[in-house]
From TrEMBL:
<feature type="active site" description="Cysteine sulfenic acid (-SOH) intermediate; for peroxidase activity">
    <location>
        <position position="45"/>
    </location>
</feature>
<keyword id="KW-0049">Antioxidant</keyword>
<dbReference type="Pfam" id="PF00578">
    <property type="entry name" value="AhpC-TSA"/>
</dbReference>
<dbReference type="InterPro" id="IPR036249">
    <property type="entry name" value="Thioredoxin-like_sf"/>
</dbReference>
<feature type="domain" description="Thioredoxin">
    <location>
        <begin position="3"/>
        <end position="159"/>
    </location>
</feature>
<dbReference type="GO" id="GO:0045454">
    <property type="term" value="P:cell redox homeostasis"/>
</dbReference>
<protein>
    <submittedName>
        <fullName>1-Cys peroxiredoxin</fullName>
    </submittedName>
</protein>
<dbReference type="InterPro" id="IPR000866">
    <property type="entry name" value="AhpC/TSA"/>
</dbReference>
<keyword id="KW-0560">Oxidoreductase</keyword>
<dbReference type="Pfam" id="PF10417">
    <property type="entry name" value="1-cysPrx_C"/>
</dbReference>
<dbReference type="InterPro" id="IPR019479">
    <property type="entry name" value="Peroxiredoxin_C"/>
</dbReference>
<comment type="similarity">
    <text>Belongs to the peroxiredoxin family. AhpC/Prx1 subfamily.</text>
</comment>
<dbReference type="GO" id="GO:0051920">
    <property type="term" value="F:peroxiredoxin activity"/>
</dbReference>
<keyword id="KW-0575">Peroxidase</keyword>
<dbReference type="GO" id="GO:0005829">
    <property type="term" value="C:cytosol"/>
</dbReference>
<dbReference type="InterPro" id="IPR013766">
    <property type="entry name" value="Thioredoxin_domain"/>
</dbReference>
<dbReference type="InterPro" id="IPR024706">
    <property type="entry name" value="Peroxiredoxin_AhpC-typ"/>
</dbReference>
Length: 210
């Protein structure tokens, strides 16, 4: 059965470029981004891994650990890291799982036989500190991911976890958010004493800027 939002992310023990990874223990109290790439030494993947490394300060700011995966062996990963640093200008500073037995790829449904049974699609799983899956994205092998959108999604998750709000279309940090319709008018007024805009009884916008 396919993994679903809210489900505990399956734990695993697998070899990586930074040693054996026991996924839940490795995550600790951090958020996690587990993402697969179809194959080592391919052009789109090379740009993606360089970008993930470049965004290291952004991951750290959000208490996020990132971990990559493909079904290639560990020695190929290490050789590829040299190419990534040379062409992208950033050394890979996060673990890449060497999932040559496809254990993790199959556990997370990263192999789609109707697409290509020999490679992993571009999967993304965002996992929160309680080890629950909070976001699932699947891209075809030919389409590079937008990791800024993944960061934006994590910003939304972290914000809405701590407030009775949701984020509207195209939201970016600092913009107004939507008050949960679960809050009554009285509850909303108590929770948001700064005031809010009521466009409709079910559509109330508020600024959380301090």
């Amino acid at each position: 059965m396919a993994l679903q939002l809210g489900q505990v992310a399956p734990d695993f023990r697998q070899e990586s470029t930074l040693g054996i990874i026991e996924f839940h223990n490795w995550l600790g109290n951090s958020w996690g981004v587990l993402f697969s790439h179809p194959k080592d030494f391919t052009p789109v993947c090379t740009t993606e891994l360089g970008e993930v490394a470049r965004l290291n300060p952004e991951w750290k700011k959000r208490n996020v650990k990132v971990i990559g995966l493909s079904v290639d062996p560990i020695d190929a990963h290490h050789k590829w890291e040299t190419d990534i640093k040379e062409t992208q200008g950033h050394a890979v500073d996060f673990p890449m799982l060497a999932d040559s037995d496809e254990k993790v790829a199959r556990l997370y449904g990263m192999i789609h036989p109707e697409c290509d049974a020999t490679i992993t699609v571009r999967s993304v799983f965002v996992v929160d500190p309680s080890k629950k899956i909070r976001l699932i994205l699947t891209y075809p092998p030919s389409s590079g991911r937008n990791f800024h959108e993944i960061l934006r999604s994590i910003d939304s998750l972290q914000l809405t976890d701590n407030n009775s709000v949701a984020t509207p279309v195209n939201w970016t940090p600092g913009e107004d958010v939507v008050i949960s319709p679960k809050l009554s008018k009285e509850e909303a007024e108590r929770k948001f004493p700064q005031g809010y805009r009521e466009l409709k009884p079910y559509l109330r916008m508020v600024s959380l800027k301090q």
